[in-house]
Amino acid sequence: MLEELAKTPIIEVERREPVRVKPDAKLIDVVTVIREHKRGAVVIEDDDGKLAGMFTETDLVQRVAHDTQKWQDSPVGEMMTREPKHLLASASIAEALALMQQHTFRNIPIVNEHAHVVGIISIRDILAHLAEHFPEEFINLPPSSKHEASGRWGG
Amino acid sequence: MRRIQRTISEIMVEGPAPTVGPTDVVGDAVEVMKKHSANYVVVLEAKKLVGIFTERDYLNRVMAARREPDTLQVQDVMTSEPVTLSPADSVAYAINQMAVGRFRNVPIVDTDGRFRTVITVRDVIHHLSDLLAEAATSDDEMHEWTDIGGG
User: How much is the pTM?
Assistant: First the structure.
């Protein structure tokens, strides 16, 4: 089962469409789209539709100066990760996980041979795939007596 | 896949956690996150877990709302009484919380209510990645991707 999981191409994992913005988008607008789409990251595309960068919630915390409201009008292009690590659609779950582990990423853009963004894979997509395809391992675990007592799984 | 039924205590990392008090201001909480390179802070009161405040909360409840981080208290924007797990629970429970519950950070609390640590999606990535790498090296036919997972 592990082997099967490891080899599964990321294109077979159910994913959400990436949220795309241009490098000159204002950070406040990027914050708004991240919130509206409930994402952890956006991909930044240049005018030719090629991958220009990534910007994540973590970047927002770690890179943006919060002591004034000036950040709101800054273009995302100044704060994004340029030339981000990416995967081809043929990459496997094992490759995606290894890249996530190595760089502490939660989201990796997927590109075609022309560097156009064709998708994004997130750790949540991979975990949801696990939970869906190996339900006996993830969903139907017998709750421990502790759980029943505390009622933590009641909701 | 058996190994996913390891317990959280086997993979959790204990150490000084990023911690704030409920009346600390959000700006300080963000500094604590940065200092620990963490995506969250736990909110403790008299050593008991009362909430968690994550970078997602910061984005949604502070930045998008254009509120002032230096005057806003953490207790006004944290998630109170978050879902917790115990060190004896299976790693699969944590994965389920993350996949279905959409939490990226799950506080681990002893049965006596004492806060221990937080299991993060990063810990789970590490665990799964190691599992797949081990599966690869244990099978000669899998050489094509031993390099990928071997880090």
Answer: 0.82
B42: containing domain: 2-149
Q: Where would I find the H helices in A104-138?
A: 123-133, 135-138
> How much is the ipTM here?
0.78
Q: Does B11 touch chain A (CB under 8 A)?
A: no
* CATH value at residue B126: 3.10.580.10
Q: A146 contacts in B (CB within 8 Å)?
A: 86, 88-89, 111
pLDDT in tens, B63-109: 889 899 999 999 999 999 999 999 999 888 888 888 887 889 999 99
Selecting from A2, A35, A100 the residue whose C-beta is nearest the C-beta of B125 gives A100
Nearest beta carbon to residue A94 from set B92, B98, B148: B148
CA-wise closest residue to A58 among B117, B17, B105: B105
DSSP state of A20: E
**Chain A nearest C-alpha distance from B50 (Å):** 15
